[in-house]
Specification:
- The strands form three sheets. Strands 1, 2, 3, 4, 5, 6 and 7 form a seven-stranded mixed sheet that branches. The chain has a five-stranded mixed sheet with strand order 11-10-9-12-13, sandwiched between helices.
- Helices cover 46% and strands 17% of the residues.
- It starts with a helix and ends in a 6-residue tail after the last helix.
- It contains 19 helices and 14 strands.
- The relative contact order is 0.09.
- The chain folds into three domains: 206 residues, no CATH class; 58 residues, DNA polymerase, domain 1 (Orthogonal Bundle); 176 residues, 2-Layer Sandwich (Nucleotidyltransferase, domain 5), CATH 3.30.420.10.
- The chain is α/β, with parallel strands linked by helices.
């Protein structure tokens, strides 16, 4: 039978193996987390640390429901390939194609002699174009949750289209991607050369001739290699540990003999300035010294600490994101660390209708607005307060007054110090001096998932995890504030 012959040809007598073969869905990792792919092949497997991404899992479930509903609506006669053993899924796809099914959902195709395989949301039959199956062939439709085409979507689809061409013997010049509210045609001919370039990169990573650069800690790579990659980058004193440098600037420095932060700290600043432009040369030089001294280095005197007021509150927001067209984003938690009371205070919205209430509760908690500073980290919170003022006119005056009390601690610290940390994100700066979040399984996106589960179930342990995470964000700000005010600082 034709399907059996095709299976034998493109399976090469085996099933896909992630240590040998490339799934088209990993195109995102190849583009955005190539060091993680390097780790797959060359890092000790014992260094893997599995981390549950609840946010992505929830997104995936939502995507699957939306995808299935769209397919049912637009292609009611679709043959659905039920995921089971990988070999059976490929066999079933080939059998459906050979039978001339009008549409095939959940398809899987292999070309294991070339070490590539893919999953396809929907194969749609097109008449004409003599294929190995007859006077018809198939085209690809992929469904994505994004609002716009991203580079990895296009390359992923183009690679899947290549495998489809190899299997059926007809090359569809275009594949379709269905986005939120619109669709786009992917020119697979145009992308063919780029696909080959990326696959050559993957093979070079696999065989060890290329070790790509990691990202900055604390997310040097994606799980399960995040912890290992962070450790490797720090142990090497990699130039990634220096904020603001571009990949091109790091390459220039390495070619000039500055391989790590220790080399940078021992450098002649004028020589660095001749290699890379300002302010990057000076920033990198003094940050490298801060690493060697293992302490903050004073950049500008008289900036920190700021003039204190009678009441000093450190606050942080948690907000949902939009999953479907039926829901909307809103702030569901405002957390505050009250320095004078030495306690954590929180305001939780049970649903979007209580968003206005928790912001009013926040304002009413402020005892003396004229004698209060509201500390936050990055501009997000102030932008959100201003947006709330526009959204709820009845409390607009209070919200704008509250925004005027705010002080961005990140800007203040960045003006005053060079820190021995790879960036000025709170998740990088506070741990540089010993602060640790108490939960390994609850970050910003996890918090949103725990919150939505709490809404659905009412389980107290779920909202408790969200509150602890938010409290630790607030405590990290005051920890860093106290540390920089009271600890030894290196003065160059």
């Amino acid at each position: 039978m034709l399907a059996d012959d095709l299976y034998n040809t493109f399976s090469a007598g085996r099933t896909p193996d992630e240590t040998k073969d490339f799934h088209a869905s990993k195109m995102y990792s190849l583009l955005e987390d190539s060091f993680g792919i390097w780790c797959d092949f060359h890092a000790p497997q014992t260094e893997k640390v599995q981390e549950v991404n609840r946010y992505e899992n929830l997104k995936t479930k939502t995507d699957r429901r939306n995808r299935d509903a769209w397919i049912t609506e637009h292609y009611p006669g679709t043959v659905v390939i039920i995921p089971d053993a990988e070999g059976d899924r490929f066999k079933k796809t080939l059998a459906a194609m050979a039978a001339g099914a009008p549409a095939i959902a959940g398809a899987m195709l292999w070309n294991l002699p070339e070490n590539i395989f893919c999953s396809i949301n929907l194969l749609v039959r097109e008449e004409g174009g003599e294929s190995v199956f007859g006077n018809y062939h198939y085209k690809i439709i992929q469904l994505k949750r994004a609002h716009d085409i991203k580079e990895h979507y296009s390359l992923q689809v183009a690679l899947a289209n290549k495998i489809l061409w190899q299997v059926q013997g007809v090359f569809p010049p275009y594949a379709k991607v269905i986005l939120n509210g619109k669709e786009a045609d992917i020119n697979c001919i145009f992308l063919s050369e780029r696909v080959e370039k990326e696959m050559a990169k993957w093979r070079a990573i696999k065989d060890g001739t290329l070790e790509p650069e990691a990202h900055k800690p604390p997310k040097a790579a994606a799980p399960p290699w995040r912890v290992y990659a962070n450790k490797i980058v720090a142990e090497r004193k990699d130039l990634l540990m220096l904020p603001h440098l571009s990949p091109a600037q790091r390459e220039i420095l390495k070619n000039a003999g500055f391989k790590n932060t220790a080399d940078m700290a021992a450098a002649d600043l004028d020589k660095l300035r001749a290699l890379i432009e300002e302010p990057f040369a000076t920033e990198s030089y003094y940050t490298a010294i801060a690493y060697e001294k293992k302490m903050p280095l004073l950049k500008t005197a008289g900036v920190f600490p700021p003039p204190r007021k009678k009441h000093n509150l450190y606050f942080d927001f948690e907000a949902t994101e939009t999953f479907t067209k039926e829901n909307e984003s809103f702030v569901y938690l405002i957390g505050i660390w009250d320095k004078e009371e030495n306690k954590f205070v929180s305001f939780v919205a049970k649903n979007k209708d209580e968003e206005e209430k928790i912001f009013l509760d926040f304002f009413n908690y402020i005892k003396e607005p004229a004698d209060t500073i509201l500390y936050h980290w990055t501009e997000y919170e102030v932008k959100k307060i201003r947006a709330i003022a526009a959204k709820f006119p009845a409390i607009a005056a209070k919200m704008n007054a509250m925004a005027d009390m705010c002080l961005d601690q990140k800007i203040l610290v960045g003006k005053a110090f060079y820190l021995p940390s790879p960036s000025l994100s709170l998740k990088a700066a506070a741990p540089a001096f010993g602060f640790h979040w108490r939960q390994d399984d609850c970050g910003a996106m996890d918090s949103m998932v725990f919150y939505t589960a709490w809404q659905r179930t009412g389980r107290q342990d779920l909202i408790d995890k969200v509150l602890m995470y938010n409290e630790d964000d607030c405590r990290a700000m005051i920890f860093l504030d106290n540390y920089l005010e009271t600890s030894e600082v290196y003065i160059p």
